[in-house]
Write a structure and sequence with these properties.
168 residues; 18% strand; 45% helix; Rossmann fold; alpha/beta
C-alpha cells in the first residue's frame, strides 16, 4: 500500500537536517500510521505545525541522534511527538525526543502526545516517557497500584487480555 501522505510529509530519517521545511515554529513528529488509524485527528494535527513522519519499526533506531541534529541545525521553536499508545515502537520515538534534549544539553520547548485506542489524544508528561524505559520502576508502580494498572491494561491491551484469558 502506498501512503498518500508520503509526498506531502517528509520522513525524519529521509530529510536533510537543514531542510527549510524544518525551520518552523512547531515541528510535529507523527507516527506514520496515524493517518490510517484516525484520519480526522491526523488532519487536525497537520494544521498545528510542520508534520514529519517517523516509524521506529520501519526505520532503524537512529531517531535519537537525528531528532537532536534537526533541532540543532534547523531550530524549530517547539517540537511535538504524536504516537500511538501501547506501541513499543512508538515508545522509542517518544524517548527520542527526551534523548534529544539530553544530547543537546538544553531545555526544549516540547510536548508528548499519545493516541489512546485510536480515538483520544492525550498529552503525557515527559517523565512518564522516562519511567517507561525503566521496567524496574514500572514494576514498582505496578506493585503499589496493581488494581489500577490491571484495570487499565484490561481496557486497552489485547496482549494483556489474551495473556490473562480475558475474553474481548
Amino acid at each position: 500500500m502506498t501512503c498518500q501522505y508520503s509526498l506531502t510529509h517528509p520522513w525524519v530519517l529521509s530529510t536533510w537536517v537543514k531542510s527549510p521545511i524544518l525551520n518552523t515554529d512547531r515541528l510535529v513528529i507523527v507516527s506514520a500510521c496515524l493517518p490510517y488509524i484516525n484520519r480526522e485527528l491526523f488532519e487536525k494535527i497537520s494544521n498545528e505545525g510542520t508534520v514529519i513522519f517517523a516509524c521506529p519499526e520501519r526505520e532503524p533506531a537512529m531517531h535519537y541522534g537525528k531528532i537532536a541534529s534537526i533541532i540543532r541545525s534547523s531550530g524549530p521553536k517547539e517540537v511535538w511527538v504524536v504516537t500511538v499508545d501501547g506501541s513499543p515502537h512508538c515508545l522509542a520515538l517518544q524517548a527520542a525526543l527526551n534523548e534529544a534534549e539530553y544530547i543537546l544539553g538544553e531545555r526544549l520547548n516540547k510536548r508528548h502526545f499519545v493516541l489512546v485506542d485510536g480515538r483520544e489524544l492525550i498529552e503525557v508528561d515527559p517523565d512518564a516517557v522516562r519511567a517507561a524505559r525503566y521496567i524496574s520502576i514500572v514494576n514498582e508502580l505496578l506493585r503499589r497500584n496493581r488494581d489500577f494498572v490491571i484495570n487499565e491494561l484490561g481496557k486497552h491491551s489485547l496482549e494483556f487480555r489474551r495473556a490473562h484469558g480475558i475474553k474481548t
